[in-house]
Amino acid sequence: MRRIAIGLMSTLSGLVLLFSYHTSTNSGTALASTGTAGGTAAGQSDGTASADTSADGSTSSDEASSSGSSSGSSSGSSSGSSSSSGTYTGDAVMTRWGVVQVEITVKNGKITKSEAVQYPQGNHRDEQINSYALPVLAEEVTAAQSANIDAVSGATVTSDGYVQSLQSAIDQAHL
Amino acid sequence: MTVPGQARTVRPDADPGTDPAAAPALDGATPIVEQPRRSFVEQVMGLPMSVHVRGPLARDDRVARAVEAAFADLRADDAMFSTWKPESPVSRMRRGELRLEDAPERVRRVAALCDEAAERTGGAFSAWLPPAAGARPVFDPTGLVKGWAAEQAFDRLVDRLAALGPHDVLLSAGGDVVVGCARTDTPDWTVGVEDPRMRSRMLLTVPLRRGAVATSGTAARGAHIVDPATGAAPSGLLSATVVGPSLTWADVYATAAFVRGADAAQWASTLADHAVVLVDGRGDVRTVTGPPS
């Protein structure tokens, strides 16, 4: 169960990464998501629990330790039962506009639902950000579970657009 | 998990007899080892170029020097082929100051590849474009050079790294990706194909140990692709992604598929050893796999 939770938390970090990609280019946020972009969990792509994790429950990622700022994002609390079902809440991650916290629902080892239980509130800009980013977040995890990608193929990214690209967040995590 | 018509994994390289990741799974457990990894980014040819190296020396200075040499290769090709740098051989050709037969060997090689690309794509790709209606066609190999130069730099980097022991390498040239794995104990590289309408969302992911993924579309820069037959921006597709063994050809085929538009799926089904992902104007996704060679 613990290993399942850890594997899922890695995915969860990716959700935060994807979320923060929309809301912010804050580099601290991208770095906080290192555990996911590092490609640590072998079984993560199919949502099962084959991720090889160390005994203390942290993800065993070289990159995570070398980036030095991955604390928090890959741990989380679990309210699930002993089967691979339940609800998992990730740690709150600080973004430029406020705190983001994601909760996922798992049934039989597959993520069936994800939502941000905490997201920035307040000014008009935040409302715009939230209305755009949150549905993306939910679709992302239930459709492809592709947080664990190494590169993005898409229409040509220019130098100007790079800073805001998902590729730049992945690159940041491994510098 | 699966959204109909959206989430699907393309794996042209999935023959268990040739896939080193699949082969050792004798007891049901693939021996995946966490290897050190490092990324490098530089802006070359106006594009962000990202290199990732995975293996025991990934964070060693020797790897850093090998990657720096790869960026130097890319800068050298930029100086050779840029249509923005007035003194580049290609710029001189475009002004009529330099004939193709007198151009440097790399320029002649690329010109020959451009001719081959026009042939392979039935004219959907061309390096000879009229700058205005009725004007004389001017040499513009840009559509091929980016992928070709990236692949050349990648191949030379793989050779340089081989001297340091087995390492895996990934290079992304502004969204066109080439990967290789000299190791067998590492996970596949995972390349996400972005949704052209929502660029942080992946339509599907492609696990690769060796090969390339290239995408043509308008999402990032507007209509920078023109149909050589009409001079107009092609319509009908939001993006075309090609997965294949070579970045040069994946890139050319992606451009050609995008130009072909409605005709692209039929054409893509003839491309041996390639898989093509087409996103039409309604956002519907279609994957087409060509025959094995």
What are its keywords?
heterodimer; A: 175 residues; alpha+beta; Sufe protein. Chain: A; 5-stranded antiparallel sheet; globular; B: 293 residues; T-fold; 8-stranded antiparallel sheet; two-stranded antiparallel sheet; disordered N terminus
Quick overview of this protein structure:
The complex is a heterodimer of chains A (175) and B (293). Chain A has 175 residues and is an alpha+beta fold.
Tell me what you see in this structure.
The complex is a heterodimer of chains A (175) and B (293). Chain A has one domain: Sufe protein. Chain: A. Chain A is α+β, with helices and mostly antiparallel strands. In chain A, strand 3 (93-95) and strand 4 (98-107) form a beta hairpin. Chain A contains 7 helices and 6 strands; from the N terminus they run H-H-H-H-E-E-E-E-E-H-E-H-H. Residues 1-83, 94-98 and 120-146 of chain A have low confidence and may be disordered. In chain A, helix 1 (2-23) packs across helix 5 (124-143). In chain A, strands 1, 2, 3, 4 and 5 form a 5-stranded antiparallel β-sheet that branches. Chain B has one domain: Roll (T-fold), CATH 3.10.520. Helix content of chain B is 28%, strand content 26%. In chain B, helix 1 (61-81) packs antiparallel against helix 4 (142-162) and helix 4 runs antiparallel to helix 5. Chain B starts with 36 loop residues before the first strand and ends with a strand. Chain B is of the alpha+beta class. In chain B, the strands form 3 sheets. Chain B has an 8-stranded antiparallel β-sheet with strand order 1-2-5-6-9-10-11-12. At the A-B interface, helix 1, helix 4, helix 5, strand 6 and helix 6 of A face strand 1, strand 2, strand 6, strand 7 and strand 8 of B. Strand 6 (151-153) of chain A pairs parallel with strand 7 of chain B.
